[in-house]
Every structure is written in C-alpha cells, then in structure tokens.
Amino acid sequence: MKEFDLIEKISRFFKSPAKGIGIGDDTAAIRSGYEYHLITVDTLTEGTHYRKEWRKVFPHLYRSIGWKLLAVSVSDIASMGGMPHAAVTSFTLKKDFEEGEIVELAKGLSAACNHFNVLLVGGDTVKGNCEAFSLTLTGKAEEIMTRSAAKPGDLVAVTGICGDAAAGLNIIESGKIDTIEKRKLVERFLFPRPSIEMGKKLVLSGVKCCMDNSDGLLLTCHEIASKSNVAVNLESKKIPVSKEVKKLFGDKAFKFALSGGEDFNLVFTFPESLKSLFKKEKNVFIVGRVTEGSGTYIDGKPAQISSFDHFGG
Ligand code: ADP
Ligand code: MG
C-alpha cells in the first residue's frame, strides 16, 4: 500500500477541526480568533533518511541531521504562509548510541533554531531498535495557503532551482565529494534553507494555493491537482535546473528536477492578475498553468509520477 493511501485510510477516523484544516495539508491549521495556530511533525530515521556510512565523506553528518530535523518542518510552516514558533523533539536511540554524535546533532539543531528563530522547549528520549529523530513545530499565521485552492486559469510557479538536493543525495551515495560543485550540491541536500520570508510574501500578495516540494515537483503538482480538482500542465523547458547538475548528470538532471525530493522550495498557483508581480521576482519561476480536468501533464502528455514513497508502489 502507498503512503498516501494509508494516510487516507487513517484520516477517516478523525474529524477536521470546526474552523481550520486537519489531516491532509502541509500543516494542520486551527483557527483561533483572528489567527491560525499551525502544527506539524516530521521524522528522520536511519536507513530511510540517512546512512551512517555517509560520515566517511561527510564527517559532520549528525550536525546536518539536527539542522534538517527543524528545517523540514519550517518548510511546511512556510508553505502555509506562517511563522514558526516553538518546537519539541523526540529521539529514539539504539542501546549503543554514540554520545558525541547526539551532541553534534544538538549543535546542528541549535544552529537551525537560531537561523529560523524557533524556541526548542522540550522533548522525549527513549531506547529503540532503530534510530529516529522526530520534531513537532508550532507556528502562527493570519491568513493561510492550502493545497486545495488552485483554480483553472492560474499560473504555476516554483520558488527555486529543482533537483539540486536529489543530485546532492546521489553524490553522497557515490562516496566521493571531490569538487566544490559537488560539495555545494551535497550541502543543498544536507542543510536545506526553506524560506519563511517567501511564504509570507506569497500569502501577503494574495496567493491562496501553495505546497512545499519536499517530495519532488511532480508529486507536489499532482497533489495540488488532486486536492484542488484541477489539472496541472507543466512546460519542461521552463523548469529551472542548475548548471552544475546539468554538467555533472547530463540527461539525468531533468529527472532529478521533476522527481527528486528535498529541495524545500514552494510550489504555488496564482491568478494572471499577479503575473507582473512574480515575473520580476528573481527566485520565482513560472513553470506551468492550471486547467480544468485532473492529473499532471508535461508538455501536454500525462506525467509519469515517480518519487519517493515510504512503502513503495
Ligand atoms: P509533508 O510531506 O508535508 O510533511 P506528508 O506527506 O508527510 O506531509 O503528510 C501528508 C498529510 O498527511 C499531512 O497533513 C500529515 O499531517 C498527514 N499525516 C501523515 N501521516 C499521518 C498519520 N500517521 N496520522 C495522521 N495524519 C497523518
Ligand atoms: Mg510538506
């Protein structure tokens, strides 16, 4: 069974908040007076999200796990148009855990707390058979953007280069970081920098539909199409791919840009009336258009949706 199908099954047991959004968007959003309280949780586990062998080429791996643990949730808050506030963690450690690495992780997490202006206020530490780090983040927003607000006629945009993180993962897996270019891509994968300011800017400009592309551009567009009951049409030549990735990976670069995850940019849709505003933004790339219908298309052809799914399929 696929991850999305399982979440759908679980969600049937729980009703949504009377005012706001429950399961199904980047964060939950509970309306309270004039604002929304946002809450989200994410987990990084050994084997699925990182491998200890990577330390051979990147000795500060655990610093990056700490950084990323917060950054991935900040990305979800940013995609709703919110400001992050406070975090609690949960660490599951194996019996023979390495103390130095957990201290290294704490340093990375602390650096991320400073960078994103988040207060870490508690957590839980337990023993288990698989190492896992989980973080719950709260935030606030006056207005929110959702996955379900795309409208036919809207344009589709992404707030950064696509595929750098997937290329970085590929490089670290290859076991060799021997150039500055490769190091830059690995750092894009290990130390993502979601933009809270960009999320804020979008929501203040009147954007209603947004999602972060943590699972890759195609899957994100597919999810927006499905939740909004529309079709998303992408133009391949408009999808931004970095020159480093093109140089290092050739034809594979475009696959990374479409299906590679963890870039932590925002994908959003907006009406034609906002086009002049976004056309001059350096980090906004208009990549397609929303139409009536369903599904995701590239250059008019149905897209092959492939990206990481925790349970395959
Ligand atoms: P993201 O990639 O933005 O973190 P996910 O793809 O992990 O989001 O999850 C999609 C939606 O499903 C989110 O709203 C999330 O809160 C919800 N969700 C995922 N797993 C569960 C679960 N076990 N129980 C309840 N809700 C879940
Ligand atoms: Mg998300």
In a few lines, what is going on in this structure?
The chain has 313 residues and is α+β, with helices and mostly antiparallel strands. Helices cover 35% and strands 25% of the residues.
Report on this model:
This protein is an alpha+beta fold and 313 residues long. It has helices spanning 3-11, 61-80, 99-116, 164-174, 180-190, 196-205, 217-228, 243-249, 252-259, 275-279, and strands at residues 20-21, 28-32, 35-45, 83-93, 119-127, 132-141, 155-158, 209-212, 231-234, 266-270, 285-291, 295-298, 301-302. A seven-stranded mixed sheet has the order 8-10-7-11-9-12-13. A hairpin with a 2-residue loop joins strand 2 and strand 3 (35-45). It is globular. The termini are close together. The mean pLDDT is 95. The structure holds adenosine-5'-diphosphate and magnesium ion. Adenosine-5'-diphosphate binds next to helix 1.
The helix count comes to 10
The percent of residues in helical segments reads 25-40%
Which class do the helix and strand fractions yield? alpha+beta
By DSSP, the count of extended strands is 13
Percent range for β-strand residues: 15-25%
- How would you state the average pLDDT, rounded? 95
pLDDT < 50 stretches: none
Strand arrangement within the widest β-sheet reads 8-10-7-11-9-12-13
Distance between the termini: 7 Å
Question: Which cofactors or ions or other ligands sit in this model?
Answer: adenosine-5'-diphosphate, magnesium ion
Main sheet overview? 7 strands, mixed
Q: Cα-atom Rg, whole angstroms?
A: 19 Å
